[in-house]
TrEMBL record:
It comes from the Bacteria. Residues 2-116 form the L,D-TPase catalytic domain. The keyword Glycosyltransferase applies. GO terms for molecular function: glycosyltransferase activity; peptidoglycan L,D-transpeptidase activity. Belongs to the YkuD family. Keywords: Cell shape, Cell wall biogenesis/degradation, Glycosyltransferase, Hydrolase, Peptidoglycan synthesis, Transferase. This is L,D-transpeptidase catalytic domain. The lineage of its organism: Bacteria, Bacillati, Bacillota, Bacilli, Bacillales.
């Protein structure tokens, strides 16, 4: 079973299969006023945004959104790659589009997501 562990202080998302680390990705997190919530969640949906390509309409969620069991929060791509590694979101976890697409290949609905400081 895959598990996502997020370390806010490290600006990293870790993908585990059981206890074995599979991948690690850089992330952006919530601003001071809109911090990313610490806790235990699950992925409840996955929504692709196919119009987020050069010349197409831009989505604020990059190419993919994975909603968390905490309403209004999710893991998603970004069309602003310079934001990765910074506190810039309204609480969501931002990833490079290629990284969120890669992550989505491993995880499904119900995947646990553990967010820690």
């Amino acid at each position: 079973m895959y598990v996502i562990r997020i370390r806010l202080s490290q600006f990293r998302l870790y993908l585990y299969h059981g206890t074995r680390l599979i991948k690690s990705y850089p992330i952006a997190i919530g601003r001071v006023a809109t911090r990313t919530p610490v806790g235990d969640y699950r992925i409840i949906n996955k929504v692709p945004y196919p119009y987020s390509y050069p010349g197409g309409p831009l989505s604020p969620f990059g190419t993919l959104w994975m909603g968390l069991s905490r309403p209004h929060y999710g893991i998603h791509g970004t069309n602003n790659p310079a934001s990765i590694g910074r506190m810039v979101s309204r609480g969501c976890i931002r990833m490079h589009n290629r990284d969120v697409e890669d992550l989505a290949r491993y995880v499904g609905i119900g995947t646990p997501v553990y967010i820690r400081p």
